[in-house]
Amino acid sequence: MAGTAASPTSLVEITISCRNLRDTDVFSKSDPLCVVFYQPFGSREWTEYKRTECIDNTLNPDFATKISMTYHFEEQQHLKFKVFDVDSNSPSLDYHDYLGEFECTLAQLVSSRTVQKPLQDPSHSGDNGYIIITTEELSSCKEELVVQFVGKKLENRSWFCSISPFLEFYKANEDGTFTLVHRTEPARSTNDPVWKEFSIPLRTFCSGDYDRNVKVICNNFKSNGNHKHIGTFHTTVRKLTEGPGASNTCWLINEERKRQKGSSYKNSGEVLVNKAHTRQVFSFIDYLKGGMEINAFIAIDFTASNGDPKSPQSLHFLNPALPNQYVRAITSVGEIIEDYDTDKFFPVLGFGARMPPAFTSVSHEFFVNGDPTNPFCHRVQGVLEAYYSCLNRVQLYGPTNFAPIINHVARFAASNTAGDKYFILLILTDGIITDMPQTKEVSCGCNGIQTFINNAIFTKEMAFT
Questions:
Q1: Does an H or E element contain 120, and which?
Q2: I want to staple 37 with a disulfide (CB 3.0 to 4.6 A). Which of 46, 231, 270, 409 is the partner?
Q3: C-alpha separations of 266 from 99, 196, 210, 233, 253 in Å
Q4: What is the tens place of the pLDDT at every residue in 140-182?
């Protein structure tokens, strides 16, 4: 897919309908209302988020009220939809007949777009009807401007040193004021600068309006912050996208210099468009809808620095009454990723342990489930079972080397020439890395292939609460 890297946060709109609801009224049909509940981050309590309107006398409501929510890829956002038959003007739900509910995560909704599920009511054994939930990303300007400027013969009013010019871009506001939206880097010591190409969302640059006035100010950089004004010109995105040419050769005008020099003043130099075009920016939801697969790798630190699993001080402590920090981390992150994985299989790798049966050599890349040919574990529960089994099978040792694991995932990412997979590497460790230079090198290199590697490091001080 063309475009830039997607942001994992989007504003989505939820539309709710119901069909074949129970009729709890005697002389008329039910008057349904849907209430959406959510669990705030870090809480297990349900909090009311928003209510739809009440529709009188129908068992098949299509609610006009939209539920807008911010979708976060990295969070498991639990939602509950409860449907009631409104029987009075009271805002308390206790005074209305309960018709049923449906519980899910926002990730399940955005992945499926339309979900149709039966409503559940433990107190009623019969049919409760079903709910239809449609989720769409809110429409917005999804384009960005890619542009590069060059300058020619910029005026240098200093007798003793060269200039280092930079550009500032201001978009016009409705009230006639201007807001700074971008600043280039200074082009050092030149009257003929070539500024670096930059990209910026159109909603930021011009509020998505191709014809909105954009004021461009050219200043001479001063390290003390007292930059010297060279000149100003005005343009629009529509004009910029015409590309290089006479229409995009802009004279810098310095009003003060113009007053001083009068009719002899021509300009303070020229700024030209070297390249300019717009391109679409795809959101994370766009990629999901386009069939992108998420491949999540989990890597677990089995080095001795974690402590003896038999000791309560160990991060690997095997306490039957309370999950250790590795288990909590696997569960918390794995449950989020599981919503996006179609087959629910996770490759789980270990590092930093001596392997049976000889226990003579340290492995920095082994399959936690013990299968030498297949690293996959089914669902989060399968990952946990493999983890517990591995703790009883290997000998914790060291050192803590990340590079072999990252190389393993990078090879898979590099082989994905179609670009239809999103790779995540979750590394769970006690935070002590012994091959930091190699880790940095392999994380940044990957043979020029763009890979997506997320390193999550959990220590005692960063334990979940």
A1: none
A2: 46
A3: 77, 27, 29, 14, 8
A4: 667 999 999 999 999 998 878 899 999 999 998 877 888 889 9
